Amino acid sequence: MSTTGNSEELDGCELGTMSYWNDTYTAEIANFNETGDVGEIWFGEDSMIRVIQWVCRNESIVANDPIIDIGCGNGMTLLELAREGFRNLTGIDYSKPAIDLAMSVTNDEFPDITYEVLDIVVDKVTKYVEMFKIVHDKGTYDAISLNPEDSKAKRLSYIDKIGQILRSDGLFVITSCNWTESELCEHFKTTFVLKELIPTPQFKFGGGVGNVVTSVVFQKIPT
Ligand SMILES: C[S@@+](CC[C@H](N)C(=O)[O-])C[C@H]1O[C@@H](n2cnc3c(N)ncnc32)[C@H](O)[C@@H]1O
To answer: Helix, strand or coil for residue 153?
Structure first.
């Protein structure tokens, strides 16, 4: 983790800005229309498949359970969940080009996936309160943590919103490449407790062992 000098926050960069994502997805839409390439699968296809397999193995999750993907990007996680039989899927992203791309990628096969342009940090989530059995995030909390302006306040708003939209019996599944398991547990501890770690590849260096990506499942602390 690279941090700023005076805090536990990450150094801000363009990956934390909406203009970066709008430009990225605008280019990816043009490419998709031309070649059919869906664009970048963040942290690689394996990271996505590990989470999908975890969801499929989990007997407490059934086909009609509401699942939301926060910062759904090109919609590939939702597409794979739909292909596995999940039928109550929602994708939100603050980038309109991302939502346009996700709709282009998934609509032919699965026109019933619901999409909304929504900024999870800023916008109200009133209509989603206590709605979701599964809240999924791959790379979005990371992007928010990289916002060059007051990322801590934005992270805290994100954590509050996730707490609002997750059902009391729900599970929050997050994949990060910027934060470790213990950092995620520390960040989310006011609202969530660790339920499970989804194993990810480890590397060894100088006697230490680390993960390139971390996938963690949280449940809500009962109120
Ligand atoms: C690293 S990409 C990951 C995209 C997708 N989850 C995936 O795994 O391919 C981060 C995504 O988060 C979205 N994002 C960043 N900040 C957001 C916010 N405040 N609200 C909603 N989406 C956001 C970006 O537009 C981008 O699609």
So the answer is: helix
For residue 96, how far is its CA from the centre of ligand 1 (angstroms)? 11
In the reported structure, the alpha carbon of residue 162 is separated from the centroid of ligand 1 by a whole-number distance in angstroms of: 14
User: Span 14-220: which CATH code?
Assistant: 3.40.50.150
Ligand 1 atom at shortest distance from the alpha carbon of 48: 8
Say if CB 77 and CB 51 are below 8 A apart. yes
Segments in the chain below pLDDT 70 = 1-7
- In this structure, the dihedral spanned by the alpha carbons of residues 128, 18, 46 and 219, taken in order and rounded to 10 degrees, is -30
- Domain residue limits, the chain: 14-220
pLDDT in tens, 92-130: 999 999 999 999 999 999 999 999 999 999 999 999 999
Which residues are paired to 90 by β-bridges?
A: 68, 114
